[in-house]
Amino acid sequence: MKVRCIDNTFCENLTVGKEYSVVEEGDKYYVIVDNLQDEITTKKERFVVVEDGDLAKKAKAMIHELTFQVDNNFKDIKDFKIRKNSKGEIKEVLIKFNYL
User: Fold this and answer.
1) How far does CA 57 lie from the centroid of its chain?
2) Residues 5, 8, 14, 16, CA torsion sign
3) What fold characterizes domain 2-51?
4) DSSP assignment, residue 9?
5) Could you report the per-residue pLDDT of 61-91, keeping only the tens digit for each?
6) What does the alpha-carbon distance between residue 61 and residue 58 come to, in Å, rounded to a whole number?
7) What's the longest Cα–Cα distance across the chain?
8) Domain limits, the chain
9) pLDDT tens for each residue of 12-56
10) Any residues with CB less than 8 A from the CB of 24 and at least 6 apart, and which?
């Protein structure tokens, strides 16, 4: 994921307007590589998202498709299975569509 700095208050190693790659993302923070090539943890409020990562793009596309299916009574879903691990946690969701 790429983010652009919009606020570098109290953080001299960031440049406003510069894009940074996100190494790790938390609820309220990003871990990025700053101008001195050091990994730093900084607030999300300092940045705007420029480009989502591939996983985020795929997840958003899947959520969009499933929302469409729910709104249309699952008209294109052929089969649906959920696999769980020994603890009962969802491990995998398998969805087969009727698309040719």
Assistant:
1) 7
2) positive
3) SH3 type barrels. (2.30.30)
4) T
5) 888 888 998 899 988 999 989 999 999 999 8
6) 5
7) 56
8) 2-51, 54-97
9) 899 999 999 899 888 899 999 999 999 999 999 999 998 877 777
10) 30, 31
